[in-house]
Amino acid sequence: MRIIMSAISESPIHTAVLLMALGGPDSLDNVKPYLLDLRGGRPTSPELIEEIRIRYQATGGRSPVLGIMRDVAALLERALNEREGQQYRVMIGMRHWHPYIKDAYADMMHDQPDRRRFPNSRMWDRRAPAVSA
C-alpha cells in the first residue's frame, strides 16, 4: 500500500515535502489503539478511553487532523507547483497514527527526490531547542 499523499502530481519528483502532525484516530474503534501508541504502549483506563471516545464522537467519530493535513498538502503542492521550472510533491505523515511518518518517509525515499524538505521537523526532535516567538 502506498502511503504517499500527493495532491495533484504524478510526474517525476524534484522536491519532496513531508508535512508532519501528531495524528489522531480515524474511527471510534481506533481510539484505544491510538491512545496506546500515543502513550508509548502504556494502557489507558477504560474510563478515559470512553471519555475520549465521546469527544471524538462530537467531531464526527474521528480526528479531523488527517483531513486537514490532506487539504493543507493539496493547497501547498498546488501553490508550490505554480513556480516555473520547479516541481514539488507534498506528502503527509503522522507521529501516532496512519499514515505514520516512517512509512511516508520510506515512500518518499522510494521515489528518489532530488531534494527533501521537512518544514516542521524540529517539533519532532526532543533535543531541539525551544523556539520562541
What does it look like?
The protein has 133 residues and is an alpha/beta fold. It folds into 2 domains: 1-24 and 64-133, no CATH class; 25-62, no CATH class. Helices cover 35% and strands 13% of the residues. It contains 4 helices and 3 strands; from the N terminus they run E-H-H-H-E-H-E. It has helices at residues 31-38, 46-58, 65-80, 101-110; strands at 15-21, 88-94, 115-117. It has a 3-stranded parallel beta sheet, with helices on both faces. The longest helix is centred in the middle third of the chain and has 16 residues, at 65-80. The chain is elongated. Mean pLDDT is 85; it is low at 1-6 and 127-133.
Summarize this entry quickly.
With 133 residues, the protein is α/β, with parallel strands linked by helices. It contains 4 helices and 3 strands; from the N terminus they run βαααβαβ.
Record keyword descriptors for this entry.
3 strands, alpha/beta, 133 residues, disordered N terminus, single chain, 4 helices, disordered C terminus, 3-stranded parallel sheet, 13% strand, 2 domains
Major beta-sheet overview = 3 strands, parallel
Q: Number of helical runs?
A: 4
Q: Using the CA coordinates, give the radius of gyration.
A: 17 Å
Q: What spatial order of strands do you see in the largest sheet?
A: 2-1-3
Task: Furnish the topology, listing elements before pairings.
Elements: E1 15-21, H1 31-38, H2 46-58, H3 65-80, E2 88-94, H4 101-110, E3 115-117
Parallel strand pairs: 1-2, 1-3
